[in-house]
Structures are given as C-alpha cells and as structure tokens.
Prior knowledge:
The chain has 309 residues and is α+β, with helices and mostly antiparallel strands. Helices cover 37% and strands 17% of the residues. β2 and β3 (44-48) form a beta hairpin. It is elongated, with a radius of gyration of 20 Å.
Amino acid sequence: xxxxxxxxxxxELESINAxxxxxxxxxxxSPETYILSPSFHSTSLRISFPSSYPETIPVxxxxxxxxxxxxxxxxxxxxDLARQVLQSCFRAGEPCIFDLVEELKTQIxxxxxxxxxxxxxxxxxxxxxxDSASExxxxxxxxxxxxxxxxxxxxxxxASGAVSAVYNALIRTHHVTSRKKVGKxxxxxxxxxxxxxxxxxxxxxxxxxxxxEESLKDWISGVxxxxxxxxHLLRAPAPIGESRKLQSAPATKGQLQSKVDKLAAVSxxxxxxxxxxxxxxxxxxxxxxxxxxxxxxAMGYEETGREIG
Length: 309
C-alpha cells in the first residue's frame, strides 16, 4: 500500500523521518513494503503495511540488510524481537511505528546495559519499589483544578506569574506508569513550573519542563528523589532561547534572532500541563514549543555539534 493511498501512513512516514532522520522509514518499489532503518542497530527491517492500517497490524517480513560486522544470527534475532515488540505495542486504529522504534531502542539499550552490569542492583529502581508516602516528602494528592487527564491540558499554578527568564530541561526514564508518582510530579510542577509535558503509559518515560532556572532545579531534584528506573537528566536547565536556535537554520543570523524572538512568546502564551501517551504526540508538543531539534539531539536521534547562523 502506497503512503499516498493511506493518510495515516503518509502522516506517520513524514513524522518518523522528521524526528529520526531522513529515510528512517522508506518505501520500496513494492507499494506495501517499507524499510525501517533504526539508527541504534545495524539491521534494517522490511515491514508490510496492509491497506487497512492502522486498523490492522503491519507485518515484519524480516531483516533487509545488516552490517558486515554483525554477528551470525543477530539480524534474525533483531527481527524476532521487533515482532514481539510490535505485538505488544500495537493498538487497533493507532499508528504504531513510533512506539515500535522507541521500545526496540529501550530493549536494545537494556541488553547492552545488562551485559556489563549486575541487574540485581536495579531492583530498587522499580516503578513501585519506592512508592511510599514519605518518598521525597511529597503527598500523592494532586489538586483536581491544577492538572488534566491524559491527552488534555491545564494551567499550572506557577504559570500565573511573570517569568523574566525561561529555562527548559528534559528527563528520560525507563517508563512512567505509576499514577501515584505522576501525581507527585504534577504537584511539584504546580508550585515550581510554568509548563510541563509528560509521556506516560509506556517506554520511554519522558518529561519536558519550562520555568525559571531555580524552579527547574528544585523540580528536577524532586523528580530524581522519586527514583524512577533508568532516570537520566538528558538536558539540564538552560535558557530556552539556546534550544530554539537549533531549529532549521535561516539564511542569516538576523533571521535566526527574529525567529527566536517570535518563539519566545510561546512560553508566555501557552503555559500549562500536558500528558500524552505516545512519543509521536510528545514530538508534536515539543515542536509547538519550538524545541524539536533540541529534543531530537537529546534523545540521540540527531548528531549534536552543528552550529547555525
């Protein structure tokens, strides 16, 4: 099935390649067959999309190509893992390739980590292991007027005041599933931040936040105390203007500054809280904040170090 014949697939094809890089998902001469080439593995996969996608699950046909340095059987093993992940993350009616790529990346990272680390030491980092009321001194009760349910938005308490300098930060965890912990993260945000975006319900767990430098540091300290599994502060608090300079390069430095100035209004005009269930929706949200490329680099989807202007 050609992408132009299926709007959902066409939109997913565009989004996948915008976030992970050109030709991450590419169509072959066969209209229904596509090649998925994840940056974190040497094996590419052939995927067949039925005409009824996303109502019907796609089929992973097998490995398309692998590196000459790949071990014997590694490509086939990766294809088998991808099939298992696809079965677990597919939901009828919802595009699934974002979640497939993210969960594959997480599982490959876990395997690499397990090869050099005693996994028993990770048991204390489980999602439920540290869900005690005394944890970090925060109550799990969250004011209903301050937050929103998944997929909706709300205004944070700290957003009502003026913020002279807006900073942002990004956190990644193995997953965010405990509603009790999410409640604590929200409550801390109500008092500390002007904007918070969470990706919950699957792997990876993601948190993007905006606020003053000190408020972000306090909030990050609180989130760290919750002992999320595989917690990583991917981007420490920094002026949001620096993040937005990483967007597509304009012709001149003057045009760049003009674009950054226009995007600066986003943080002032759109404070609040959002919670989404997919990486695709998380990417859409950070793009609206003007920091998509910054996020992509933090996630490892794009190389860093390229200067603009």
